[in-house]
Amino acid sequence: MNVAPSPPLSHNGGDGRGREFSTVDRFVAAMADLLKKIQTPSDLRHLRPADLSLLAQEIREEIVRTVSRVGGHLASSLGVVELTLALHYVFDTPRDRIVWDVGHQTYAHKLITGRQEVFHTLRQTGGICGFPRREESPYDAFGTGHSSTSISAALGLAQSGAIGPLAETGRAGV
């Protein structure tokens, strides 16, 4: 995946209509659609660490845009954008499982795990769920709603992994 800034629109750095673009303008325009390039955490892992803050900003903008239209849990989702990116950047999801303690912290998670195109249907009839849902994505290790279920869920995943198909292959993060 190529996420480097696009070349200038014309040989002189302008738009071909006499308007000149600064290096910053060209960089911002090239990176403005960074979120659209991320369909899975594997795509995310191709980014430079320095690009993650730009991606985090785009994710926040998409969450605010969607929640302002359809409702939802804004603060809890905005508060874990960098954490979500870091977890998916470092761990080999979905092989390594992430268990969320509060389900409505998963909006950024949904945006980078293949549900970007349907994110506008969040919490709508026939749309995607506001919480992690195993039926929606292999990246949703455990279906949770509010809180206080993550420790027992992660323990259960760890125990089942010790004796089942996850032995030696998976980790659970909370």
Note the overall shape.
Answer: globular
Order of SSEs: HHHHHEHHE
Q: What do the pLDDT scores average to?
A: 80
Percent helix: 25-40%
State which percent range the strand residues make up: under 5%
Number of helices: 7
The description of the largest β-sheet is: 2 strands, parallel
Task: Map the helices and strands.
Elements: H1 23-31, H2 41-44, H3 52-70, H4 74-78, H5 81-90, E1 97-98, H6 107-111, H7 150-163, E2 172-173
Parallel strand pairs: 1-2
Report on this model:
It contains seven helices and two strands. The chain has helices at about 25-30, 40-45, 50-70, 75-80, 80-90, 105-110, 150-165, and strands spanning about 95-100, 170-174. The longest helix is centred in the middle third of the chain and has 19 residues, at about 50-70. The model is unreliable at about 1-15 (pLDDT under 50).
Keywords:
174 residues; mainly alpha; disordered N terminus
Quick structural summary:
With 174 residues, this protein is mainly α.
